[in-house]
Design a protein that fits this description.
binds 2'-deoxycytidine-5'-monophosphate, Rossmann fold, single chain, alpha/beta
Length: 230
């Protein structure tokens, strides 16, 4: 927020899969009274619809076309979690399955899909007042964000977190299998041609490997207050 600006603050939270972005970004938004937007959920919503409709994931133009005809809405569920509506249907329970995990980086890697998603995300953030998490928020979607964070954690810690998330959904997957999958996804996300996963030069880096969630949120809050002068 520049001096005299009336726009509400924008906070960008980027980092690789399993670094804890969504958990801390949601809590940070709650503490500051801002809206939390999980941008990965939008890409997951599209990947899920593509799988359900049997769209060929190798065909960029089919996915671009599918997105053009898809309405994706994010809203805050009763427990504070992001709920995702695709064409009006709540698909939240299906977005973290192994099938979607395995396809979402491919879908998110297509330039034409990203152009449209980024347009939608910028529109959602146009009045500010958001904490947005993703891979390219600070570098590409909202480079004007007031505060940027880049969260990391060791591959093993990230795989263990994903294992817990999946167990809650009823899937038992070995940590080393998840570590391989996450590593593969990181590589796809970091090497794609358009807006790859990268740390913005002005992002504050936090390694969450050995930190409790509340500790990370407190640290982010103090950075935020310092930067915006609250
Ligand atoms: O944060 P997540 O694991 O739900 O993200 C799912 C995928 O979506 C991830 O593999 C990369 C992609 N993604 C992206 O490319 N850009 C974003 N801003 C958010 C997610």
């Amino acid at each position: 927020m520049t001096a005299g600006s009336i726009r509400q603050p924008i906070i960008a939270v980027d980092g690789p899969a399993g670094a804890g972005k969504s958990t801390v970004a949601r809590k940070l938004a709650e503490r500051l009274g801002l809206l939390y937007m999980d941008t990965g959920a939008m890409y997951r919503g599209l990947a899920h619809k593509a799988l359900r409709h049997g769209v060929d994931l190798r065909d960029e133009s089919s996915l671009e076309d599918l997105l053009t005809h898809t309405v994706i809405d994010l809203y805050r569920g009763r427990d504070g979690q992001t709920e995702v509506l695709v064409d009006g249907e709540n698909v939240t329970p299906y977005l973290r399955t192994p099938e979607v995990n395995a396809s979402v980086s491919v879908v998110a890697g297509y330039p034409s899909v990203r152009v449209e998603m980024v347009r939608r995300l910028r529109k959602l953030a146009e009045h500010g007042g958001v904490v947005m998490d993703g891979r390219d928020i600070g570098t590409y979607v909202l480079p004007e964000a007031d505060v940027k964070f880049f969260l990391t954690a060791s591959l093993e810690a990230r795989a263990r977190r994903r294992q817990k998330d999946l167990a809650r959904l009823g899937y038992q997957v070995a940590v080393d299998v998840l570590a391989q999958e996450i590593d593969h996804r990181d590589r796809l996300d970091s090497t794609r041609a358009v807006a790859p996963l990268a740390r913005a030069t002005d992002a504050v880096m936090i390694d969450t490997t050995n930190l409790e969630v509340d500790h990370v949120v407190d640290e982010m809050l103090s950075v935020f207050r310092r930067v915006v002068g609250e």
